[in-house]
Amino acid sequence: MSSLSAVARIAYLASETLVDSLPPLPSNPEFASPFTSVSQLSRRRPNLISVPYGGDPAATLLRATGSALTSFTTLSNSQTIARLVLRLAELASSPLVLHIAVLNDLSDVLILRTVVPYFLLSTTAQQAHDNALLASKLARSQKTAVVHAFFSTKEGSDTATELSEENVLNFLFDEKGLVNGSNDHTNGVNGHANGVNGHSGGTNGHTNGVNGHTNGTNGIDSSEDVEDDGVALQLFRAYEAAALNTLKAVRRPIRPFTLTGSSEPTTIIFILGKASFEASVEGLSFVDVSLLSPLLPSRILGAIPSTVTSVIVLEQVQNWSLKWTPLYLEVVSAVQQRNHATRPTVHSGVLGDSTQITQVELLKVLQKISQSTSPLRLRLGSTNEGKVPFQVPHIPKHELSYTKILAHLFRERLDISNSPNLIPAQGELATSPEFALGRVRGQIDERTKLLTAVQDLLQSGNINSELHTLLSKWVLAKDDDIRSRSLGQQITQKLELANPSVGVQRVLALRSHFPSVSRWIIGSDAWSYDLGSSGLHHAIASGLNVNILILDTLPYSQRNSADPTRRKHDIGLYAMNHGDVYVASVAIYSSYAQVLQALIEADKFNGPSVILAYLPYENEDVPALGILKETKLAVDAGYWPLYRWDPSKELSGEEPFTLDSDAVKNDLQAFLDRQNHLSQLVRSKPQLATELVSSLGETVKEIRKKKALHSYNDLLTNLDAPPLTILYASDGGNAEKVAKRLSNRAQARGLSTTLSTMDTMSLESLRQEEFVAFITSTAGQGEPPQNGRQLFKAINAAAANESDLLSNLRYAVLGMGDSHYWPRPEDTHYYNKPGKDLDARLEKLGGTRFAALGLSDDQDADGYQTGYKVWEPQLWKALGVDSIEVTEAEPEPITNEHIKAASNYLRGTILEGLEDNSTGSLAPSDGQLTKFHGIYQQDDRDIRDERLAQGVEPAFAFMIRVRMPGGVCTPEQWLTINQIADEHGSGTFKITTRQTFQFHGVIKRHLKSAIQDINRVLLDTLAACGDVNRNVVCSSIPTMSKLHAQVYQFAVSVSQHLVPRTTAYHEIWLDKKLVAGEALKDHEPLYGEFYLPRKFKVAIAVPPTNDVDVFANDLGFIAIVDGNGELAGFNVTVGGGMGVTHGDKKTYPRTGDIIGFCTPEQGKYIAEKVMLTQRDNGNRADRKNARVKYTIDRMGLDVFKSEVEKRLGYQLQPAKPSAFDRNVDDYGWSTGEDGRHHFTMFIENGRIQDESGKEFKSGLREIAKIHKGAFRLTTNQHLLISDIPTEDLPKIKNLLSKYKMDNLSHSGLRLSSSACVAFPTCGLAMAESERYLPILVDKVEKICEENGLRNDAIVMRMTGCPNGCARPYVAEIAFIGKAPGVYLMLLGGGYYGQRLNKIYRETVTEPEILDILKPMIERYALERNDGEHFGDWTIRAGYIAATTSGKEWYHRMGGEEQFA
Ligand SMILES: Cc1cc2nc3c(=O)[nH]c(=O)nc-3n(C[C@H](O)[C@H](O)[C@H](O)COP(=O)(O)O)c2cc1C
Ligand code: SF4
């Protein structure tokens, strides 16, 4: 087995991700075949990614760093190493092994040594095998990067005994064997180690083979009293420990140095490289070095006995370009630490081909050094001195198909600026995009100089008329390919004969630029891959008239999902987004004519052109037919659409986008849906409500439009006042509102104003600006908001390096923050940090402040407006417009109220928006309206930053919520819901806290079909969100079948009674047209055209279970049962509500108040009148103060009640006694009065999905196929399979058990926990919730278990923001997201939802949560009274005060020490 196969096998077995760097063509990928061989025998399946030669492996490795271990395999070559070295520092603390095969020179690979903690070298196949294991262990356990360089040995020339797969895996994954950096080895092994490995040479007794060395893995003793660097020592210890573990596994010595030769040497040769000296020379010993980093001076000295007078350091570095070689420097500096008398002389030497070193040669060297007392530079073995001449890269023959067309089309005009033929003269970098762009820029500059020189000459009058005519003609025809050339030739001939004046000489010197040239840069996977990755951006941004042809050779059938960033066809989208770039996507084996057309158009286009050319081939032997087939597949499948995008056509009013692939035309919708890139491919249409447009999704468009807007404004403004650019960064909309207000007010004062988010401005453009007002809020912990982060980053970086980059800029900053958001004294620096930082950095960069830094604080009397109002007048003053009287009223800001009123009963422009293929989103105003239709626009927040950085709009998708009163559905409906999730959504669906289904990830094109499917099974989504009555929820009481039926019917009737009557829903989603050509006008008898001020929630509870948390709803009905078990009526509650805004004390949660009793028949009318009272009295000016709870507190409960009764025309009866005892679900089996059976199953946080070992989605689908009863959803996000006839029990039980859905052996804590969705889909989330709560429960339930509370229910809830969807404010313990990883902690809620909890700590992270809860739960276990619940106990124990009403929520908040 060769060293390469041995290493490949270990890398394959050891890693989760394996990145293989392919060698230059035409070599075959060396590691590929060993990978294939091992994959046939192994059960391991690492994620295998190939990086083309010239590609940037570091970028791929950075993306793979989530793996427990990533291995990288490559042959050593300067290009790959150079790319790695730049980024390796970033990877140094990731578990990563770089296995680099070396042929006969370590020069390249040694460059990596300084950027990684560990550098191992193997010279034999066996050593390579063992060191590969060691490196993997070390990287995995220490979470660090390890370079393992090994000499590539031929198959059969060297043998290696391999460790079996089982042993490899045991060794690597055995936790006990983990290296911890300490010397925890046992003596037994130690003894064994030394016994075996004290010495490997065997020819001579040696210095320390017999010693009882402390760690047994090292052949060298560190006996010298030398102090090693602490960090290096720690790293070395970890190496020693890993080496010992490896030794135990392989039973072979693993040592940093191996000694052979004389035991009492006078000369010692350190060897870094592959050398096998057959020599046995008296007084000479050898040290083979296999650990180059960390290298301890004490170990080096330990290897040099005091008898030694000369040390030779031989290194196999034939092309080393620095003066001193690495090991030599280490040895010399170690030796310096010895006292002068015993210090040997250290000579350096380059080791050549060691197979040819004879004993005579060696003796000659020894003789030479014996005659010299000063250090010598030696050479041993044949070396090829000097650099290897640059090799012209091989251009694969298939690529000629494109380059030949270029040559044919443009003939002499063709200039390939990164042609490989330039390499011999210009060096290896000649094919790099930087070089090519530099060359193009230089040539264009020269041609401009030629034009100036010609014009000067024409004006000088020093030339004859014939020359004058020729030169004038050339000026006119300089861009004509044929005439510019022929005229140039004639001009040159004449000039050579003319009077050699300075002007003539200047033109002659530039004559080569007479012909118009077609300039091309080619990006090829084979020899200039980087153009397709990093280089392209520079080329596009350069704005130069250059054509870029990028070849994509990745066959369709091998498209790499493991490394999706290699999708070159996305480059087209990127380039199109950039604006003035010609873009074409072509495939020569699909349409030759289209290739020609695109090349010609690109040549004509005056600016950068990008042509993406498809040429799928794996290697050179693939026949043309193979390429043809792959191309057809890719084009037909829409993977590689053929198109051309010519922005110059826009000027003449033509459509710039042309789709050239017929097959794709038919499949376009499907393709674009799949890729979610619809928005990019077709030209964007201006949206209707432009004044509303400025959210994140519009950023890309804004960048494009900004310039045009600027000049338009310039035209409009006649005043002398300078233009004002307003840049804002806002997460929640406050800063955006303020910026818009400022912009309106500036325009009213006659200023030309440009308004955009900070990220639409580059640092470069900022330099051109004169007056800029920045408005930034504060997000996270003192961080800038998302849409300002790029510019903040750029300004910070510039401020760190340069001093007066922005010396022309006049600026003013308004920071917006909340001085109480992070209330702990140590966190005060977070207050308004971005604003303060920005102001200081701009000053550092030379900018001049034209108004003092303004700071607005949410805590001020008038909220953030207070600070703004102080700041604004300074701007007018500085801009000289303070005396201008503004007579016209400022345009009113557009609010949801306007949107509703103008929507024509919830229509807006939703229909048009659905048909607009230019974006995956809807217009912001329509986004507000679709909520009324049960649809919420969202985007994947996990990838939002990444997409913004790439210049593409966020990954928009919609959430759909079903209206399903009482949460009951049939098996058929279940199956449809399941199918919709698969076909239109993210493949999973969720049971919500409002007892309904919710889908995520539905893209715009699928919205309509999804909604039609829902309606087909008699469900709908109308009013599931929005300012209307939401889904009516009711208790799921399994044992009382009859009562449930009555209560459920009541829920349905209330829902039906309050549902909006608009026909817009049917018209838009179900294609039902209005009767008689819109003659019928919509009418909303209950809502009117403004609908409600805010959402309205109704719940119906059946005591003693308060599973619906009736007190958390705007309106509640508590069922009262008469003596016969019949439903007598309901106690009515009003004014519950959960939503709060962090830091805004005008907002608070509230529990509902009981206002009386009603009969079942009266119920729906009471619901109507409560809703109408709210409709007419709710606060429409401030959505944060609009819920019923605030209306009641403002009006007073009695007034509100009497208003309801006035509308009813009668008074409510007095409330009847009733009591709750829990709000958690009754899990498990129960049987109703009618003999039917029900099973309440636990579904963590309501997510219906298939996970390994918990295939609930499949299981429930199987149950739905045979179930004859119903499914009932609970508001705790769990599920009842209900109404099962006895005869079906075995079948259902069987399925429940088969899919492990009957497992209820969870802790009481888990069974009582609940979380909202939050990241990645909820746009309001500030922290994780659904994805994190289960992890937190794991940890808290351990504490409970330790204290004997495993089965005790403690209601613990979490939400990602203070909106409170999972009703956290009535939980016994709650966590509410403030920023990633940081939560508000609340305690003291009532066990059955009867009492609000209270803020206990304003910022906690996980360690703090656990530190708080541990002693608290311990005490609770010991001190609680019989039956006392945790929430009650925390109040009795003095941790928190009881909350008596919503208005009192903030009173005495903050926990024990703060109010004691
Ligand atoms: C998640 C989050 C984190 C915040 N962090 C801070 C902070 O660290 N410092 C601060 O002064 N204000 C902080 N604030 C307060 C906001 O900056 C303030 O409410 C501002 O008015 C919001 O403006 P916006 O809606 O434009 O984002 C934070 C607000 C939120 C929602
Ligand atoms: S509580 Fe906040 S984060 Fe959670 S789902 Fe509701 S709005 Fe989103």
UniProtKB/TrEMBL annotation:
Which biological pathway?
Sulfur metabolism; hydrogen sulfide biosynthesis; hydrogen sulfide from sulfite (NADPH route): step 1/1
Enzyme class label: oxidoreductase
Q: Which reaction does it catalyse?
A: hydrogen sulfide + 3 NADP(+) + 3 H2O = sulfite + 3 NADPH + 4 H(+)
> What Enzyme Commission number(s) apply to this enzyme?
1.8.1.2
Q: Which Gene3D superfamilies match?
A: 3.40.50.360, 3.40.50.920, 3.40.50.970, Sulfite Reductase Hemoprotein, domain 1
* Record domain Flavodoxin-like: where: 724-876
Matches recorded under InterPro entries = CysI, Flavdoxin-like, Flavodoxin/NO_synth, Flavoprotein-like_sf, NiRdtase/SiRdtase_haem-b_fer, Nit/Sulf_reduc_fer-like_dom_sf, NO2/SO3_Rdtase_4Fe4S_dom, NO2/SO3_Rdtase_4Fe4S_prot
Query: GO CC terms on record?
Result: sulfite reductase complex (NADPH)
Which UniProt keyword terms apply here?
4Fe-4S, Amino-acid biosynthesis, Cysteine biosynthesis, Heme, Iron, Iron-sulfur, Metal-binding, NADP, Oxidoreductase
Against SUPFAM superfamilies, the record matches this protein to: Flavoproteins (SSF52218), Nitrite and sulphite reductase 4Fe-4S domain-like (SSF56014), Nitrite/Sulfite reductase N-terminal domain-like (SSF55124), Thiamin diphosphate-binding fold (THDP-binding) (SSF52518), TK C-terminal domain-like (SSF52922)
According to its UniProt entry, the protein's GO biological process terms are: cysteine biosynthetic process; sulfate assimilation
Any GO molecular function: metal ion binding
Q: Which cofactor does this sequence's record say it needs? A: siroheme; [4Fe-4S] cluster
Q: What's the superkingdom here?
A: Eukaryota
**Recorded family membership:** Belongs to the nitrite and sulfite reductase 4Fe-4S domain family.
Q: What is this protein called?
A: assimilatory sulfite reductase (NADPH)
- Native organism is Lentinula aciculospora
